[in-house]
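User: Hi! I have a protein structure encoded as tokens and I'd like to know what sequence might fold into it. I'm fairly new to this, so please keep things simple.
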């Protein structure tokens, strides 16, 4: 299940703190509970598909692209002097004329309708 308010979530994620634990694991602050954090795991495959999992309720209920995942991916991109934008469709992402990635939903996402598209630009 992908979010309908993706740009609002993207803006919220940019105000969140993320810290890397290891190669695939990041800790991202919770905005709803300042004493809590969420664990995000990220894996990249060779076809520009990103698999990410989070411990928040949205992600646990099969939601893709929660703010914590967005914040984690933005943190990783910032280490390469890149900025990400998130898009609901491949067409929206391709119009940006930037490198495009796909954030897959849970399980095998063959039709690529349940995930979110990401563009990456220098910045």
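Assistant: Happy to help. Inverse folding works backwards from shape to sequence: for each of the 123 positions I chose a residue that suits the local structure. Here it is:
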């Amino acid at each position: 299940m992908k979010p309908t308010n993706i740009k609002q979530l993207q803006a919220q994620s940019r105000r969140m703190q993320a810290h890397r634990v290891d190669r695939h694991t990041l800790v991202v602050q919770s905005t709803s509970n300042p004493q809590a954090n969420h664990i995000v795991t990220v894996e990249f495959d060779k076809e520009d598909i990103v698999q990410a999992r989070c411990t928040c309720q949205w992600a646990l209920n099969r939601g893709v692209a929660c703010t914590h995942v967005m914040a984690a991916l933005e943190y990783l991109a910032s280490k390469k002097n890149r900025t990400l934008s998130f898009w609901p469709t491949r067409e929206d992402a391709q119009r940006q004329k930037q490198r495009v990635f796909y954030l897959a939903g849970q399980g095998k996402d063959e039709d690529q309708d349940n995930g979110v598209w990401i563009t990456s630009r220098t910045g």
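A useful reference point when you look it over: The beta strands are 18-20, 25-29, 37-44, 49-54, 82-87, 99-103, 116-122. Feel free to ask if any position seems puzzling.
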